[in-house]
From TrEMBL:
EC number: 2.1.1.-
Any GO BP: methylation
Protein known as: S-adenosyl-L-methionine-dependent methyltransferase
This protein's record includes keyword Methyltransferase: yes
InterPro entries, per the entry: Ppm1/Ppm2/Tcmp (IPR007213), SAM-dependent_MTases_sf (IPR029063), SAM_mthyl_Trfase_ML2640-like (IPR011610)
Family that this chain belongs to: Belongs to the UPF0677 family.
Keywords, ordered alphabetically: Methyltransferase, S-adenosyl-L-methionine, Transferase
Keyword Ribosomal protein appears in the UniProt entry: no
EC class name: transferase
Length: 279
């Protein structure tokens, strides 16, 4: 990320979420605010989606990771979760459209420049901010999640849910496992969802080319991909950190659950969504 500038990958993901509402008729994720928050940017969003080197698959994956997270959050809230933490919130709109907003204390954690830009876009689009939401600025590489959440009023003794989408690949391993270690040790119990990618060398050649093209674009924008994980060792490390349940949802399962039948052929390795719980 360029110093003092809002995240360009957050904007790119928001454009693909918005395009999903139009090009795919919200077949995976219904997000009525995805278009509104971008204002007059929708034509650019559609062009961005149509020209993307990954074709439709990245757009579908971005929708799927949000859908998996939101379904898990609904279950968690019904089981007693009282706090939602959206890490690296970007332009995600979950907090502004979920019917759970009145039942949860919500903390959106992000870099200050990205957060400031989002707040302006919310105001421009006349999207109301729930009274239960707190904006929490952070630099994941220089501040700890524990300190910024504590200052914002987060209660470690209450059951919590962490949504961490579109962030982990751009962080270093120490920053990632520092955050996961904090979540795993919360006394009230916690769940987390995040996405990650397998090493590029392990991905099928066709998918590898699309991934390398994406990696090149984000690096040029100053947001280089820094971390890749093989699935089995990652699951083992999460268990060691204190997560009692570790559910890895890989490319094949995501395709089966969310893609059309004609598009279900998918590489065995690539983009994953992890859902882990200490409960």
């Amino acid at each position: 990320m360029q110093t003092g500038q809002p995240s360009l990958t957050a904007l790119g993901a928001a454009r693909l979420r918005a395009a999903h509402q139009v090009l795919d008729h919200a077949s995976i994720l219904a997000d009525p605010l995805a278009l509104r928050i971008l204002g007059d940017d929708i034509a650019v969003s559609l062009d961005h989606a149509r020209a993307h080197t990954s074709g439709s698959r990245l757009r579908w994956f971005i929708a799927a990771r949000s859908r998996i997270t939101e379904d898990a959050l609904n279950v968690a809230a019904n089981a007693g979760t009282t706090q939602l933490v959206v890490l690296g919130a970007g332009l995600d709109t979950l907090a502004y459209r979920t019917p759970l907003a009145g039942r949860l204390r919500i903390f959106e954690v992000d870099h200050p420049a990205t957060q400031q830009r989002k707040r302006q876009m919310l105001a421009d689009a006349a999207i109301d901010v729930p009274d239960t939401l707190r904006f929490v600025p952070i630099d994941f590489e220089r501040q700890t999640l524990a300190e910024v959440l504590r200052t914002a009023g987060f209660n470690a003794a209450e059951r919590s849910f962490f949504s961490w989408l579109g962030v982990v690949p751009y962080l270093t391993e120490p920053a990632i496992f520092s955050t996961l270690g904090f979540i795993a040790q919360l006394e009230g119990g916690a769940e987390v969802t995040f996405d990650y990618v397998n090493p590029a060398a392990s991905i099928a050649p066709a998918a590898r080319m699309a991934h390398q093209a994406l990696a090149g674009r984000v690096a040029a924008a100053g947001e280089r991909i820094q971390s890749y994980f093989d699935t089995a060792p990652l699951c083992a490390r999460m268990t060691e950190a204190g997560f009692r349940r570790v559910d890895d949802i890989g490319p094949a399962e995501i395709a089966t659950r969310f893609f059309s039948e004609a598009e279900r052929s998918a590489p065995a390795r690539g983009g994953h969504v992890m859902h882990a719980s200490t409960l």
